[in-house]
Amino acid sequence: METLNGVPKEVLCKKLEFDLKTEGVGYGSKHELWLVSPQYFLVSGEQLSQMIHSTMLFQELRAGREKSNAPFYLRGDFIPLANGKMAIAEYNEVPVGEGEITALREVYKKNLDYPGGYDWPYSNAASNMSGFLNQHFPGQKIGILIPPARINYLMDYFLLSQYSKAAGVDMVIVKPEDSAEKLAGVDVLYRTFQHNDLEDVNWKLGQTAFEKVSSGQMDMFPAFPKVGAKELMAKVFMENCGAKELQAYLPWTWLIESDKKPVFKGHIFSWEEVVDGTFPNPLVAKAVSGREAKQIIFSDSPDWQKRLSLILSDSSEKQKWIIQEDFSKNAQKFSGLPYYSWGIKEPMTGKCVKAPGMKTLDKCRARVCFTCVGYGGSLQPVDADVSLLPSRIVHTTSNCVHLPVLAKL
Q1: Among residues 198, 219, 233, which one has the least CA distance to residue 76?
Q2: Is 239 helix (H, G, I), strand (E, B) or coil?
Q3: Of 157, 158, 257, 353, which is least packed with CB atoms within 10 Å of its CB?
Q4: What is the reported pLDDT for 228?
Q5: Is 246 among the domain residues?
Q6: In terms of domains, do 222 and 262 share one?
Q7: Is the same domain home to 395 and 290?
């Protein structure tokens, strides 16, 4: 039986899974976990610096544009490339994952030694988030308001509230079905929702809460940006005729608007060239106003031409899309990732179809989530975790290997 530091890997996997579930980690009604693997995900010092620099650059662009020094939250999705660089795919501005990432990091730290020369110099997500909230909203009651669309993340937010309370933050969970009375005494809304969540006519509590924010009765963190992260990337490139100097840090991005032809590396391309696939780089189309990464189309997809043509012909302002460089083809591949499989049984008979035991995941691409908070010109890394999938890089922990990140110091 294969071992790690003298402990069978199968035993270690089961111990990690047991400790994670004991801590309260799990998603959805079935309280499921990902594929648990007994290792850390290692990045170089240069890759860590790249993620920090890219996030600082993006925040400077935003702050300069919006003339705002409000406290911010940014979670970047980074893709490790085969050349050793880190490519930012997108930024998200709705807090999620800080409870689960904290549990993940602390459970692994308890069970697995750090490899020589590697560490994580920023404590954990809950400690950093709690310290930030205590600093910018001292003595105020924080309400984590969860919309119906994010109820599967309830345990994650519950974990964050538990860790934050232990760190001295007065925090309460406000669930979708709670009455408006649960908002009594809340000074700051911890925003777990987007604009389109407020459009849900059945979620009266969300509308009531946001009215209190709009009227100045409550503060909100993070505030709604004037322009979403994906759209902001597009505007930066569109206003700077391709902004070649930014492409070292941000992916080339363009709004899908029929009257504004894409400018890529100084060359003007027609939308026909984008639709028919003669554009020089692989692309991905993303819905700007849809839920995070739920509506995406890759340029090598069979329905790319049909769907992109429909998007270009839709002149309504309700749904905006962007096109962006797709780094999937250049992503580094990771193989030999060990995990324990509990096997598969037929639901009716209970007969074992696949035997339990150690398995490996091969040819995986990685999505590193690197979260930061800040205020004005300052930036504080919060934490980093990774999802490894043998398919496209998407927002999920389902059926993937999910690990805490360490950096070479």
Answers
A1: 233
A2: helix
A3: 353
A4: 87
A5: no
A6: no
A7: no
Dist. CA 279–CA 262, nearest whole Å: 10
* Domain shared by 82 and 204, yes or no: yes
Using alpha carbons only, what angle is made at residue 126 by residues 121 and 130, rounded to the nearest 5 degrees? 105
Instruction: Say whether both 26 and 67 belong to one domain.
Output: yes
Query: How many other β-carbons are positioned within 10 Å of the β-carbon of residue 323?
Result: 25
Q: Which domain holds residue 392?
A: 3-226+357-408
DSSP conformational letter for 271: H
Cα separation, 354 vs 343, in Å, equals: 5
Q: How far apart are CA 72 and CA 54, in angstroms?
A: 15
- Give, in order, the Cα–Cα distances in Å from 401 to each of 113, 166, 360, 361, 365: 19, 29, 10, 8, 10
Q: Name the phi and psi angles at 212, rounded to 5.
A: -65, -35
Write out residues in the chain with pLDDT < 50, as ranges.
292-293
For 220, the 3-state DSSP assignment is: strand
Note whether 191 and 55 are same-domain residues.
Answer: yes
Which of 306, 326, 346 corresponds to the end of one domain? Answer: 326
Instruction: Let me know if residue 336 belongs to a domain.
Output: no
Listed residues 326, 342, 367: the one ending a domain: 326
Measured in Å, how far apart are the chain's first and last C-alpha atoms? 33
Q: Would you state the pLDDT for residue 292?
A: 47
Do 192 and 47 share a structural domain? yes
CA pseudo-torsion sign 234, 235, 236, 237: positive
Domain total in the chain? 2
Beta-strand relationship, 118-119 and 401-408: antiparallel
Rounded to whole angstroms, the Cα distance separating 338 from 45 reads 25
Residues in the chain: 409
Helix (H) or strand (E) holding 59: helix 45-66
Same domain, 79 and 174: yes
- Asked if 75 and 92 count as a contact pair (C-beta separation under 8 A), the reply is yes
- The answer as to whether 212 is a domain residue is yes
Tokens 């004037």, located at residue: 226
Is 287 in contact with 294 (CB distance < 8 Å)? yes
pLDDT for the residue 81: 93
- What's the pLDDT tens digit per position in 162-175? 999 999 999 999 99
Name the β-bridge partners of 372.
74, 381
Q: Which residue shows structure tokens 């800040």?
A: 374
Q: Are residues 202 and 257 in the same domain?
A: no
In 3D space, the residue among 379, 374, 398, 378 whose CA is nearest the CA of residue 387 turns out to be 398
Please give the pLDDT value at position 352.
Answer: 66
Question: Which pLDDT score, from 0 to 100, does residue 393 have?
Answer: 65
Give a yes or no: residue 308 inside a domain: yes
> How far out from the chain centre does Cα 346 lie?
34
